[in-house]
Design goal:
Helices cover 57% and strands 10% of the residues. By secondary structure, it is of the alpha/beta class. It holds the Pfam family NB-ARC.
Length: 489
């Protein structure tokens, strides 16, 4: 009997000791709470730092863990508070030990779970469905021509009637500005358009391979996709990554705005964008491009090409006065200035680029003699070219550079010599001039030469370098295009 008592005595002692060491148990639980508070605070700070990076989003399990830790803390603190009340007898306090140990164990498990969460990662790469809103000038003049094209494109996109929209026109017609307005309008309609992204196409001066690579990178950056460009660039693999992102976005319309496209490209092979409305592969991506030439729209299969036309005369005047900040309240001198300003606006030949550049160069000019001088310069009555005019001409040269065929370039320059000051001649006359100058027909005979001439005229029209009056089959040239042609050596 004595031997049996001696054997179980240590066990009884160990069992009872924990009831006698209430304060020590409370201290252990308090330490767990402090460690848990510190861990939750560190996790939240770590998540905040990671979420500052593009595309990183907090895992839901992190919030669930924080909530679980809070509930545990409240419960454990309640036990500690109750156990430490001074009026309790020692025997009463000892009865709290099982609950203290239970909470201590739960706390240890929560700490282990927190360590595992951090090892697994607290954030994930979010499938982003929006780029960013684009900056637009405050108090910008919006005319009827601009509004009509923007609204036509928006209604077509909203109605789901198109797979590719092409906005084309001469340099300085306002294509990028219109694209920005259309993008922001679409961006804010998340009920119809699930995903919207913007990218600017690269230059194409370094060969096809470089262009394809740069195009993929521009689009991928706009869609928050990392192509791992520090390794060998694989076009097929990169196209697969872009397509995978489009699939991850899921059902619904995805819009990709691609500004300033220099030449056509295979949308499916390079970007994983189907060239038809077939969405069997899980991708429904609509492409909206801006480009200089209608040829690019045609080759890209745009089912809604929209041309940025020259402004109406009244619109051109209103835009000029808006940019030069001339309101309706005038004294006598200001009325005279406005009259001259309208004449200057007329010399801008309805081209938004020229109107804006010239108008902004005259902001704050209150001497009517300066306005008269500017008008005379633009009318060619005095031989002086302003820096602003040089800027306009330089930008317009891009259209000429895009005429990669030397014969077409020479025909354009020859046409400019025949079309000063809004002159018009018939298509037949223009082709005859080219033939007599030996610019065309050197490698063909008869009617085939006329066919070549019409092909070149059509190409120049699609590049917006000439204007054709269809009713009379005559050709004319915008004043600024004419000036640009005369600076080409």
């Amino acid at each position: 009997m004595m031997d049996a008592l001696l054997q179980i005595a240590p066990k009884i002692y160990e069992f009872g000791k924990k009831f006698l060491q209430v304060d020590m148990r409370c201290t252990e639980l308090s330490n767990v709470l402090l460690e848990l508070d510190s861990k939750v605070e560190d996790m939240n700070q770590e998540v905040k730092n990671q979420e500052a990076q593009p595309g990183k989003k907090r895992k839901k399990v992190v919030d669930a863990y924080s909530g679980q830790a809070k509930r545990f803390r409240d419960s454990a603190q309640s036990v500690l508070d109750s156990c430490s009340m001074e009026e309790h007898w020692m025997l009463t306090r000892m009865t709290w030990v099982p609950r203290i140990e239970k909470h201590y164990k739960e706390g240890q498990e929560l700490l282990t779970k927190g360590r595992q969460l951090r090892e697994d990662g607290l954030t994930y790469d979010e499938v982003r469905v929006r780029g960013e809103m684009l900056p637009l000038e405050d108090d910008q003049y919006i005319g009827k021509t601009f509004s009509r094209i923007r609204d036509s494109a928006f209604e077509a996109l909203k109605g789901g009637r198109v797979q590719c929209i092409g906005i084309y026109g001469y340099t300085g017609a306002g294509k990028t500005n219109l694209m920005k307005h259309l993008y922001n309008k679409v961006y804010q309609d998340d009920e119809v358009f699930k995903a919207v992204f913007w990218a600017t196409a690269p230059d194409n001066n370094n060969g096809k391979g470089h262009y394809n690579k740069a195009l993929q990178k521009c689009v991928a950056d706009g869609m928050w996709i990392d192509l791992d460009n520090d390794v060998v660039h694989d076009e097929v693999r990169c196209a697969g990554k872009i397509m995978a992102r489009l699939r991850d976005i899921g059902p619904g319309r995805t819009l990709l705005f691609l500004d300033n496209v220099k030449e056509e490209f295979p949308a499916y092979e390079l970007l994983g964008i189907p060239e038809s409305s077939n969405t069997s592969n899980g991708v429904n991506c609509i492409l909206v491009i801006s480009t200089l030439s209608k040829d690019v729209c045609n080759k890209m299969g745009c089912d809604l090409p929209l041309k940025m036309e020259l402004l109406e005369k009244e619109e051109a005047k209103d835009l000029f006065l808006h940019e030069v900040k001339r309101g309706d309240n005038y004294n006598n001198d200001e009325k005279r200035i406005k009259e001259v300003a309208i004449k200057v606006a007329n010399q801008c030949a309805k081209m938004p680029l020229a109107i804006i550049v010239i108008a902004r160069s005259m902001v704050g000019i209150k001497d009517v003699r300066e306005w008269n001088n500017r008008l005379n310069e633009m009318m060619g009555m005095i031989s002086s070219i302003h820096e602003e005019e040089e800027k306009i001409v330089e930008q317009l040269k891009f259209g000429y550079v895009c005429l990669k065929d030397r014969t077409v370039q020479l025909c354009f320059l020859a046409a400019a010599k025949l079309l000063p000051n809004d002159c018009q001649i018939t298509k037949v006359e223009m082709i005859e001039k080219w033939k007599s100058s030996g610019l065309i027909g050197m490698d063909r005979k008869g009617k085939h030469v006329d066919d070549q001439g019409h092909v070149i005229l059509n190409q120049l029209e699609r590049m917006c370098l000439i204007q054709v009056v269809a009713e009379f089959q005559t050709v004319t040239m915008n004043k600024w295009i004419w000036k640009m042609a005369n600076t080409v050596s």
